[in-house]
Amino acid sequence: MSELLKNRYHYESIHELALRVKAVYPSFLEEDFVKSVMNGAWERLELKARMRQISVNLGRYLPDDYEQAIDVLYKVAAGYPEGYNDFTFMYFPDFVEVYGQEERYWDLSMAALESFTILSSSEFAVRPFIIKNEERMMRQMAVWAGHDNEHVRRLSSEGCRPQLPWGQALTCFKKDPLPILGILERLKADPSLYVRKSVANNLNDISKTHPGLVIKTAKDWYGKNEDTDWIVKHGCRTLLKKGNREVLDIFGFADAGCVEVTGFALDDACVAVGEKLSFSFTVEAKKVARIRLEYGIDYVKANGTRSRKIFQISEITLQENEKRNYTKKHSFTEVSTRKHYPGTHSVTLIVNGTGVGTLDFEVLPAEQLQ
Hints:
Elements: H1 11-24, H2 30-37, H3 47-61, H4 66-77, H5 91-99, H6 106-119, H7 126-132, H8 134-144, H9 150-158, H10 171-175, H11 178-187, H12 193-207, H13 211-221, H14 226-235, H15 237-241, H16 245-250, E1 259-266, E2 270-272, E3 276-285, E4 289-300, E5 306-318, E6 323-331, E7 343-351, E8 354-364
Parallel strand pairs: 2-8
Antiparallel strand pairs: 1-3, 3-6, 4-5, 4-7, 7-8
Organism: Eisenbergiella massiliensis
Pfam families: DNA_alkylation
Protein name: DNA alkylation repair protein
């Protein structure tokens, strides 16, 4: 399991930051800074709270003048190798968010956000600027969409995602995402996969509140450029999982009736937490068809209700009368993003967005493992 980003904010990393600041700003009280950051509340703080604790305390110990403070941070950032990028350095743009929102600082803050996103990411920090002055900030994002650096171009998309994970929600774009589309249009064939992933994720966000707009965009974009096609497919992933017929048609997935499914069965009707559920099935095409195979697990939640999660198996093209046999294992090992509860679950096999069979099974507590 990968290390949590918040755990990369620790004494050694904060002390290193203090020493780097001290090297370019000799009056910096590095020991006081470290103690102020890592106070009694530190261990209870999550990622963004730790980031904010660092940036607020930088403000306490850097010059009171914002321009002078930014100049110090520029010098610190310049001490890292060219091309170096580390998301833990998001306290640099967070400093801009905390101290640089006054009108008189606009140009200075925009330049700082542009510079610091190359070292880390300003995707969180730009959002209060959008909320405060949407039209002006989106003009700036449009400028960044044409930047030479992929990190800056990515910022122009990632920063205006309506539902950026861990980021402040942009309710204005949940209601009306049209201002975003001009940015995405400029980036739809970007040479950088890093940028294209952001564009796809932005589209996927929009699809959750305005599916019709994303479907229209997908139809307009698809089939003209291989990189854009990837964006469209990835950006429509939520709609595909929902079995949206218009979206399935865009990618050539036939009606589920063109495939016959047989032998859908579980290896065992019970699985204990920590073990794997195994099931198998056979598909046979009645005619040449493009097939998307998925399965849904209806998980029991803490309150006893059930919630479905969709998992992809494969996407294939079958010739007429062609058969494929599948065996799939699904893990019930505990992970940080999901806790498993005992009870009756179900697995549903899904062909081109349509459920074609459901089987119930029991999840047992881990202590019942034999």
